[in-house]
Each structure stands twice: as structure tokens, then as C-alpha cells.
Amino acid sequence: MSSEKDHHVELHRGLKNRHIQMIALGGAIGTGLFYGSATTIQLVGPAIIVSYLLGGTAIFFIVRALGEMCVDQPVAGAFSYFAYKYLGDFPGFFSGWNYWFNYIAVSMAELTVVGVYINFWYPNVPQWVTALAFLVIITLINLINVEAFGEFEFWFALIKVVAILAMIAFGLVMIFFGLGEQGAVGFSNLWTHGGFLPNGVWGLLLSLVIVMFSFGGVELIGITAAEADDPKRSIPKAINQVVWRILIFYIGALTILMILYPWDQIGTSGSPFVEIFSAIGIPAAAHILNFVVLTAALSVYNSGIYSNGRMLHGLALQGNAPKFLTKVSRNGIPINGVFASSAVTLIAVILNFLVPGKVFLYLISIATIAGIFNWAMILVTQLRFRKVEAEKGREDQLQFKMPLYPISNYIALAFLAMVVVLMAYIPDMVYSLYIGPIWIIILYIGYKFLRRNPETKPPHRE
């Protein structure tokens, strides 16, 4: 018989297969694509297509490494749990708190650009007011139950998917046939404005930094494993779809944009998707796309509140966070984790009040370095996971093996190391290289402090 105490520490397995698929899809389509791609285009030009292909390959290896572990052991805390179990106390502590920190920065970035999108319709509304309003709304949604989160995320993601597919189809019509009085656009914009690679290989390399921010969120698949009603079926399906998601939704959409409009005329004051359709005289499409990019930002923020609450809950169960964060409401929501994460995200509202319009790049630089820490930890943990399982004689029992193991791990790790080096050459991102080591030191101090607290004790390795 379960006690009241037990009842309040259990998450509910309320996410259906369709929820998992759309959460995985929605996590990879957000502000990085709809807003951050404008900055990437300025760095690399039409070759942004190649940038996303390279970054997408690395991301595929990372989520497959995570998927191998999550399918075998679908637990709360995901890669934080695995890092603790296979690498040790501090790696588990670091992995969980760093993921939380990463998604806090991502959530702040999403709130920041929500104000930009609202200003497309209502230019006089202060961005901080918009950020505060949506912070409250999305937090309340996440406090209902996990099914409510899943339903909202399903529809948020579906809007993005349908809109991008429609935009691609619409763009193809304009490219090959034209629309109204405007003739067929053709393909010349890919090479007539300084060439396909106008800033050379160096521009291509620098663009990879912002491209990697765009992919932040795909690891959310692992967080959902503890609340999936059939993780051994839904998680592999969602992860395998990463390949065609990248091909269609990133490379496909950006290829259409690069063909439709000269890359060097795209600004950075709004979504390039909205700018382009406004510039070519299709205002209705611009309004529709602005609604889409708004829902995209809210979708990723919705996912951020969800994942941050679960990560704090998982950390608390491990003894790596204060015990009050283990509290789960009767509806299966880690209520204190959600409130704590939402409260910290309020910093974005304050930043938008103090320095409106200057926050986004600073936030994505922090999110990118934290994301790289997460991804590197996943790859290293999976190397150890596979070795341990092989020693136990269980390697053949793994249902969702990492492809090209271990070569793929080392390729992806080398790629991430290269991105960190490249961050030093982008003025708005270089300071995150100082924040990274400081953040590691802060976490180590926090780890040592928490371990001295008699109320927290390390989780048990199996």
C-alpha cells in the first residue's frame, strides 16, 4: 500500500505517443530557427544550408547516444541520472544542474523574442510586459497536469509543422511558377549576391555556433521518458525522426528562404521568415508567419518550464537538490520545481525592462555553452554506459544502440570542442567562455555544500 508521502513523489505516465513525437519535434523548432537564423545568415549567406547539415549530423549522434540509455532505463532525471550512475557523484550533480541552467537561459531567450513578435502587431507594447504575461500563462498551464502540458505542446508543435510545410510548398510555387504578377523567382539568389559562400569557409565555421543553439532542446526527448506511457516504443521513434526533421524543417525551410530573397538584404530586427514575406509583397503571409513564430517561441518556453521542473525533481530525488523540490502535486506535477524555475526565469522580464532589444544574443551565448556541456556529458556518459553494459554481458540486449559507436561519439565531441573555440571569435559570445568555467566552479562549491547537509545524501547506484 502506498503512503501519502510516496504519492507525492511520483510523476504520472500521462504522455501519449503522439505527445512524445510532437514534443521531440517542437523542441527542435524554435527561436533559433525562426529568429536566430537571421544572424546566422549574415555570417554565412546561402551556405547556411551546409551549416545546418553539419550541425544536424552532430546532434543526431548526441540524441542517439541519449536514446540508447533512455530506452534501456526510462527514469526521471534522464542524463543527470546516467551521469551519476556511470561517471560519479559530481558528474551527476553537474549534468542535472547544468541542464537546468541551460534551459533557464533558453527560456529567457524565448521570452525575450516573444516581445519582438508582439511588437510586429503592437509596436507600442513594452517587451517586458509581454514577457511577464506569457510567463504567468505558461506557468499556469504547466501546473494543471502533464496531460495539459502534452496537449498544449502537441498543438503548439503542430502549428509549427503545418506552417513550415505550407511555407515550403508556397515557396516552391513562387520559385518555379511565380505568383500573381510576379514571375518565377528561379534559383539565382543562391549565387548572385557574393556567391554561395560569400564570407568563405571562416564564415561557415562561425555560423556553426548559432546553428548549435538552434538545436538546443532535442535532448528533451530524454526528459519525457519518465512520463511516457510506452517509452520503449515512443522514444526510439521520436529520436529516429530527428534526421528528417533536420532535413525538412531546417534545411528545407532555409533553402526556400535563401532562394526566394537575397541573403544580404535580410535584417536582424525580426524573424527572417516574416521579413521576407513582407518584403516580397505578401502581407497576409507575413501576419500568419508572425503568429507561427510566436507560437514557436511559446512552445519552447512551455517545454522549458516542463523540463526544468522535472530536472529539479530528479535532482532532489538523487539528493543533488533541496528536498522540498521532490514535492509532487496530486496531479503528478513537480510543483515546487516548476515554481522555482519560473521564478528564476523572471530575470528575463527584468532584463527586457532594463535593456530591451539587447538581450537575445547574450542569452543564446550562455545557453550554447551550457548546451555544449550537456551534449558532451551525454556522449561521455554513453561511452561509459556501453562499457559497463558490455562487462555485464548485456550489450546484445540493448534495444536502441548508438550507430557507429564509439567513432560517432568522438566525432561529435571533436565537433563540440571546435564550436567552443569558434565562440571566441564572435564578440557577443566570447564572454560566455568566461562564464562557463565560473559556472563549473559555482556548481562544484554548491555540490560540496549540499553534501555537508545531513538532509541530503547521494542516490544509490544500482
Automatic annotation (TrEMBL):
Q: How does it sit in the membrane?
A: Multi-pass membrane protein
Q: Which InterPro entries match?
A: AA-permease/SLC12A_dom
Q: Where would you find this protein in the cell?
A: Cell membrane
* Gene Ontology biological-process annotations: amino acid transport; transmembrane transport
Its keywords, alphabetically, are: Amino-acid transport, Cell membrane, Membrane, Transmembrane, Transmembrane helix, Transport
Please provide one cellular component term from the Gene Ontology annotations of this protein: plasma membrane
Transmembrane parts of this sequence? 20-37, 43-63, 100-122, 128-146, 158-180, 200-221, 242-261, 276-301, 333-354, 360-383, 404-425, 431-450
Just give the chief location class.
Answer: membrane
Q: Where is the Amino acid permease/ SLC12A domain?
A: 19-454
**One protein family per Pfam:** AA_permease
Similarity annotation = Belongs to the amino acid-polyamine-organocation (APC) superfamily. Amino acid transporter (AAT) (TC 2.A.3.1) family.
Give the protein name, as stated in the record.
Amino acid permease/ SLC12A domain-containing protein
